[in-house]
Amino acid sequence: DTGVSQDPRHKITKRGQNVTFRCDPISEHNRLYWYRQTLGQGPEFLTYFQNEAQLEKSRLLSDRFSAERPKGSFSTLEIQRTEQGDSAMYLCASSPGTGNTEAFFGQGTRLTVV
Amino acid sequence: QQQVKQSPQSLIVQKGGISIINCAYENTAFDYFPWYQQFPGKGPALLIAIRPDVSEKKEGRFTISFNKSAKQFSLHIMDSQPGDSATYFCAASMTGGSEKLVFGKGMKLTVNP
Questions:
Q1: What's the first-to-final CA gap in chain B, in angstroms?
Q2: Tell me: the pLDDT tens digits for B10-47?
Q3: pLDDT beyond 90 at B111
Q4: B48 at the A interface (CB within 8 A)?
Q5: Which of A31, A85, A96, B36 is buried deepest, with most CB atoms within 10 A?
Q6: CB under 8 Å to B40, separation ≥6 — which residues?
Q7: B residues 10-39 near A, CB within 8 Å?
Q8: Closest to A101 (Cβ–Cβ): which among B32, B89, B106?
Q9: In A, residues 35-74, which contact B (CB 8 Å cutoff)?
């Protein structure tokens, strides 16, 4: 399968715990995005990488959130001290590059904070 | 302030009917307008997209109509099938910079057999 892959698909965690999600983009895509989607809403932009550089972060990305993309390949999104309000679907997307804004999404990681 | 407004929120059509979903955008710098289809528990999948230099684009049963002066665009699904039952999102982005997508709130389509 050559699509965007996310792991895990589901995560249940207790409030206050740290969680980390992984995204493997389509191999030739140098742009990688993280979005968050809550029930009944469209995805909302969180952050963007061009290769290994994190070039934009949304105001939604509080200081409890951190994302990395070492070597411009896979990416991780970590949430520290999770809160119930963090419960959402976390989506990763990738696209080939500038001027080609066709973005392909992964299946998402469903986070439930109890 | 919602930059992309989508309507209706839900729609029920009969098999074989036409489904129409409308979107309006605020930012005139947007120059790429995709539609995504999402099934429960899955990520959004790109259906069709348009740029403002054309007023209409058709791919199979899916057609986008674009009205630049009104800042509106719509998705038409012809000969709707039960398998089309899903949530549809319009989105917009601008070339250059992050090219992040700004999504509408989505429309849940139900196609009855």
A1: 38
A2: 999 999 999 999 999 999 999 999 999 999 989 999 99
A3: yes
A4: no
A5: B36
A6: none
A7: 32, 34, 36
A8: B32
A9: 35, 40-45, 48, 55-56
Predicted confidence (pLDDT) per residue in A81-106, tens digit: 999 999 999 999 999 876 767 899 99
- Least Cα separation, residue A99 to chain B (angstroms): 6
Nearest to A44 by CA among A106, A109, A90: A90
From B41's Cα to the closest Cα of chain A, the distance in A is: 8
